[in-house]
Amino acid sequence: MKIARFSHNDAIAYGILDDDELVVLAGDPMFAGFDTTGPGSPWRMPRCWRR
C-alpha cells in the first residue's frame, strides 16, 4: 500500500495505491484521515513515470 498525490481536473487529490488499484481519499490523509470516496478503480502508471 502506498499513498499517492495526483491531480485530476486541475485539483490535487490523494489516494491509496494497492497493487494496480487506486482508491481515492476524501481529503488530505494527514488532516482528514483515510476516508475513501468509494470503491477502487484500476490504475496504470503514466508513461512519463515509467522507467
Walk me through the structure.
By secondary structure, the chain is mainly beta. The chain has one domain (2-49). The chain contains one helix and four strands; from the N terminus they run E-E-E-H-E. It has one helix at residues 29-32, and strands at residues 2-8, 11-18, 21-24, 41-42. It is globular. The mean pLDDT is 80.
What is the strand and helix layout of this fold?
Elements: E1 2-8, E2 11-18, E3 21-24, H1 29-32, E4 41-42
Antiparallel strand pairs: 1-2, 2-3, 3-4
Give a short overview.
The protein is mainly beta. The protein has one helix at residues 29-32; strands spanning 2-8, 11-18, 21-24, 41-42. It has one helix and four strands, in the order E-E-E-H-E.
Beta-strand proportion = 35-45%
Characterize the overall form. globular
Spans of at least 5 consecutive residues whose pLDDT stays below 50 are none
Overall mean pLDDT stands at 80
Number of strands: 4
**Could you describe the largest sheet, including whether it forms a barrel?**
4 strands, antiparallel
Main β-sheet, spatial strand arrangement: 1-2-3-4
- Annotation field: number of helices: 1
